[in-house]
Amino acid sequence: MKRAKAVLWMVFMAVIMAAAYKGVAFCLEAKGSYNKNGDFLKVADECDVLFLGTSHVTTAVYPMELWNDYGITSYNISGYGHPMTMSYWTFMNALDYADPKVVVADCYVLESDKVVIRDEKFMHFSLDSIPLSTTKIRAVCDMFDDLDGRAEYLWDFSLYHDRWDELKKDDFDVDYGKTRGALFEIGICEPDEFVLTDVEAEPIESVGVEYLRRIVEECQSRGIKVVLTFLPFPAQEDQQKIAAYAGEIAKEYGVDYLNFLQMDLVDYDTDCFDSYSHLNVSGGHKITSFMGKYLTETCGVADRRQDGAANWDEDYADYQRYKINRLQAQESLQNYLVMMADQSFSLCLFVDGESRIWDYEQYVNQVHNLAPGYDFPSFDQMMEQGEDYLLVIDNKNGVVTDFSGDESGEVETSFGKLVYTGTEDGGKALYLGDSEESFLMEQDKDGRDLTVQVLLIDNRDGSVVDVERFDEALKVNK
Question: Cα(71)–Cα(440) distance, rounded to whole angstroms?
Answer without folding.
Answer: 37
